[in-house]
Amino acid sequence: MEEATAPLVVKPSNIKELAESPDLRFIPCNYVHKYSCYSNSSATNDIDDSDSIPIVDFSLLTSHDSHQRSTAIHHLAKACQDWGFFMVVNHGIPENLMKSVIDCTSEFFNLPEEEKHKFTGKHVLDPIRYGTSFNTCKENVFFWRDFLKVFVHPHFHSPTKPQPYRDIMLEYSEKLREVARKLLGGISESLGLEESYLDKDLELESGLQIFVGNYYPPCPQPELTMGMPPHSDHGLLTLLIHNQVGGLQVQHQGKWINVNALPNSLLVNTGDHLEVIESPFHV
Question: Which residue windows are coiled coil (predicted)?
Answer without folding.
Answer: none
